[in-house]
Amino acid sequence: xxxxxxxxxxxxxxxxxxxxxxxxxxxxxxxxxxxxxxxxxxxxxxxxxxxxxxxxxxxxxxxxxxxxxxxxxxxxxxxxxxxxxxxxxxxxxxxxxxxxxxxxxxxxxxxxxxxxxxxxxxxxxxxxxxxxxx
Length: 134
Hints:
By secondary structure, the protein is an alpha/beta fold.
């Protein structure tokens, strides 16, 4: 599995990478702009990301805008909806308004609140058939 971790905080990126060790190959970036570059390159190489873990609050291009642009790129390159990347918003913000905005405006697949635990993360991976229960 190909994974992209996007968070401006190094410790958060390292934690997610540690939790996902053995699950797949992780790329990590600290900004929405860098995430878009890697995402577009992966689409162009026909090696899209299976999973993207995206923070909301980042300087420059925030997570919501980044996801919106990623979904636009998928449409432009005619990625079928069934093959779109699974995008998990990962944020300390857990207000209902933030969650609704992440789905409606951002186009995320699902939402996890920090702190992230292995159990919470892996339940989402199982839910979206990114890993098996065995």
